[in-house]
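Minutes, methods subgroup
Present: GH (chair), OT, SY

1. OT presented the first of two proteins processed in the latest run. Sequence and structure tokens recorded below as shown on screen.
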Amino acid sequence: MPKEALDPGIDLHKLSILNESGEVDKDLEPDLSDERLLRMHRAMVWGRQFDERMLKLQRGGRMGTFAPIKGQEASQIGAVSALEDEDWFVPSFRETAAEIWRGKKPEDILLVYAGYNEGGAIPEGVNNFPVTIPVGTQTLSAAGIAYAVQYQEKPQVVMVFFGDGATSEGDFHEAMNFAGVFTLPLIFLCQNNQWAISVPLKKQTRSQTLAQKAVAYGIPGIQVDGNDVLAVYAAAKEAADRARENEGPTLIECVTYRMSLHTTADDPSRYRTEEEVEAWEKKDPISRFQTYLMGKDILSEADLDSMNEEIKQEIEDAEKKWKEKTEDLTDPLVMFDYQYDTLPPYLKRQREELEEETSG
């Protein structure tokens, strides 16, 4: 039987601009102001320090389980910094640095992981979604938002974050297909941190890359060095520009590494080696970005010392605000306030019973 070669019409590329030594490819270097570069750097360091403080709070029994972000700061800040304020940000459960960039107050993040649902409230006019715990489900929500944006003819872009494990979920494939068919203004941002809890990427897929999954849905896909904040920004900016021009969705695979725990309920030493972690520590996204900024003479060791002290104080201030908020959240009746505009009779009855019990 004669066979004819098929060309899906999509080229796949890998993008790297800032290497592990902090050396930049001048031909690919994005045109960003010194102010913008320093803001991105500060956000990455802020996310790292806040992450480390949250881990101490959790280990001290003052917070519940959360997912650390250490090692993935470039993937997050590089991506969201390419968005405009009016764009939509849809996180999974490991986007603390991106959430803060998008205006989430750190004291509210602490509030959420201390068990207070009030911390998840989104201010009016802020186009952020709350974190999503079930793996991959947020991709469908993002596709719905993008469909609504397109229908209303708004010049907005939607960016949804997920991990490599989510690419094995049906939700991801349904969202990709829907976005491709309807040419939606949607950016799929995959943080491929090599591990879906204890399942390595090699057991997650036979594909050489995750970026190539875009081919099946007729949309562009690109793999970037996820520890290179400049490459992530450049890819996200190009995807956002395409989406704003009604050219449809993009899949971006950020190859990075989770240097800490999957969550604080996890023990990664049971499934990965110290040598693997040490190898990725040499690719640390923050240190390479600092080398680059120092090479441009816009950052010094004195600047770093001063900034670190400022961030430390800001985190302490956020903790104080968090404690103050918890002191005001002592009324259990508020659990009935957020789901229904008008309470159903059975919930109204339960509320009245609880009120009676607690008033005495």
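2. SY then presented the second protein from the same run.
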Amino acid sequence: MTTVRHVIVDGHEVIDGGVQELDLRAKRVLLDWHSIGHVALSESYSKEPRRRDVSYDYFHVNAIDVDKDGNLLVSARNTHTVYKIDRRSGRILWRLGGKRSDFALGPRARFAWQHDARRLPNGLIRIFDNGAAPRWYPQSRVIYLHLDFQTKRARLVRIVVHRPPLISINQGNAQALPRGHLLVGWGHEPYVTEYDRYGRVLLDLRFAGVLNSYRAFRYQWVGRPTGRPSTAIYRGRLYASWNGATQIAYWQLLAGPTIGAMRPVRTVSRRGFETSVPAPRHAWIAVRALDSRGRTLGASRPLARH
């Protein structure tokens, strides 16, 4: 987990970026690492505030990953650096990027204000390169870097970008999906894009309104609302919906002269968020939500037809 604390350095209040590893069962702190003492303020690209009453966020941890050898990869946005940290001693083993990089970065491999640095199973490091702000590059991108530990060089292997270009001044991530697909959350820009293994766009959604997302993920998800399905009758038609339910395949209509005498009269396929059908000519009407196997998921309250 990441931590922050405010410390005084040379008479100025500085935000110290921290990393903790906790043993929740034993209630023990296994690692309590702080950037102050390991990373100098001079490594930062963030401008020091002119006002003394404003804290200087010089480091800004935004991602932690466990590397293949069990040590940690820590991304610090404001130093433009990914740090390899010894999990036991807290010693910095190497730096990637920034002012003190242990690797020479090849063409287009330099990144800035980055998020979500991850080691991949094939050994590459994937980074969401914001490139802003202030702006360093024409657009934000996801980059894949190959590290050569003999030559101490970092080589750009792959770039993923959005069309039209997006410049995300903060936040953002990438998620590997099955079949070589990649999901990218564009952070401050309200977009989420899925690419196939060849880089073709399969999904490009935009959030409505003014909204941004720190990270975006795609998973199989099942919605099971705690309430009942909703029904309404308007101009002779019955409307059925159940906000949040993801397993509905069919709506079964129940009708009868009394609540106790209601029986199934029709089953229709679910059509979108709200399904509309002609209302049965009975005094009482209700619906059941059915899954693809015809199993009942939930039932509405009986509705009197006036």
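Chair's summary of item 2: Residues 187 and 213 are 5 Å apart (CA to CA).
Next meeting: continue with the remaining queue.
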